[in-house]
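FYI - complex with zinc ion, inputs then prediction.
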Amino acid sequence: MPNDYISREAAQEFFRKRSEEYIGHEPVPMSFTLTGVVNELKTIPAADVVEHKRGTWITAWIKGTEFQRCTECGTYIQSIFFANDYDVNFCPSCGADMR
Ligand SMILES: [Zn+2]
């Protein structure tokens, strides 16, 4: 199952409206049990978000040449070109945030 995200505000609004529907109802509706809440959460539409990958640069030496390797995708960039040719805050290959 893909991991998706919902808006906190959308979830709060959903349950606020749902709780108003059941004020005074006895017994407690199934949707207020833990199983019911889990099922209700599945009905809230996924939010439009993009996963924010974070990584770090790891120094690696290959045959006497220094490289920086992205911990997220494994891309190597020769250190001599690193700061001049690339924004070191992001991996140019996978876009991981390296700050
Ligand atoms: Zn990367």
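The CA atoms of residues 69 and 76 lie 4 Å apart. Residues 55, 70, 72-73, 75, 91, 93-94, 96 surround zinc ion (CB under 6 Å).
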